[in-house]
Design brief:
Elements: H1 2-43, H2 46-59, H3 63-76, H4 82-97, H5 101-114, H6 121-135, H7 139-152, H8 157-170, H9 174-187, H10 194-207, H11 211-224, H12 229-244, H13 248-257, H14 264-284
Helix pairs in contact: 2-3, 3-4, 4-5, 5-6, 6-7, 7-8, 8-9, 9-10, 10-11, 11-12, 12-13, 13-14
Length: 285
């Protein structure tokens, strides 16, 4: 009995000794875990700490304070790799949060000027071109921006050609707009913009009074993309050309076969008008 009591006492003593070690070890682990982020933060450079703070403020909706931090990176640490990134984010705040596009444009242009060759420049150029084209409506200047992007880019070049063509169209330079679209098709015949390009090119050819060429583009559009919304409009346009060419029965048939036209009242008006013209011609005979 005494022997068993001694064994039990020794076991209890060992357990108590082990228990005394567990709490200090746990405390040390907790302290170490808490110290890691502090240590990591201390290891960061001043621009990195500012950038982290700016991101935190931006995520909390404190836009003015975040922009101030982004701007301070650019002004205080212009040689930092984060300076162009911060400048771009400041430009986006002007552009999208504050809706002050002129101020945003200045930030984008400064980024392009001070950090040419940096990966952020392309996005800044695209944003600047968008402001110049859509907000300022300075289409000639926008062409210059898109052309620079085209000269520097290896991606999305078909989209840049399309933007340039659209700018020329808005300047009423229809022949140059068509040439840009033709260049797009020559370089990127499988472009995802093909349906839009065929429709726009056909419309430009019509404006240049090149009716047969316009017909060919719209017919190609209809054959390749029969369900596309542009194809529906192309069918309507072809029917109009038939009508204008006095091919009234063919035009009527095409109007009547047209489905899902977005302006049904106009379509019905065309059909009724053509029926009257055909009836009048028959009476005259």
């Amino acid at each position: 009995m005494k022997k068993q009591l001694k064994i039990k006492q020794r076991q209890t003593a060992r357990k108590n000794k082990a228990s005394r070690w567990i709490l200090p070890v746990l405390l040390l682990l907790l302290i170490a875990a808490a110290a890691v982020p502090v240590y990591q933060q201390l290891q960061k450079t001043a621009p990195e700490r500012l950038f982290d703070k700016a991101l935190e403020l931006e995520s909390r909706g404190k836009i003015d304070a975040a922009q101030e931090k982004f701007r301070s990176i650019f002004t205080s640490y212009p040689q930092s790799d984060l300076a162009p990134v911060a400048l771009l984010r400041s430009g986006k705040i002007w552009h999208y949060d504050k809706r002050q596009e002129q101020r945003a444009l200045l930030e984008y242009l400064q980024l392009e000027h001070d950090y040419s060759g940096h990966s952020e420049v392309r996005e800044a150029q695209l944003s600047a071109a968008k402001i110049i084209k859509h907000s300022l409506r300075d289409y000639s200047r926008a062409i210059g921006f898109y052309q620079r992007l085209l000269d520097q880019s290896t991606v999305d070049r078909d989209q840049l050609y399309y933007e340039i063509a659209d700018c020329y169209f808005r300047l009423d330079n229809y022949s140059q707009a068509r040439i840009e679209l033709e260049t797009l098709l020559e370089e990127y015949p499988q472009t995802s913009l093909l349906a839009d390009v065929l429709y726009r090119k056909g419309s430009l050819l019509l404006l240049e009074n090149k009716l047969e060429a316009a017909r060919q583009d719209w017919q190609q559009l209809i054959e390749q993309f029969p369900e596309n919304k542009q194809s529906i409009q192309a069918r309507f346009n072809l029917a109009q050309l038939l009508e204008e060419g006095e091919r009234l029965q063919e035009a009527l048939k095409m109007y009547q076969e047209l489905q899902d036209f977005p302006r049904p009242a106009l379509l019905q008006e065309k059909i009724e008008h053509l029926k009257k013209r055909i009836a009048a011609k028959k009476k005259a005979i």
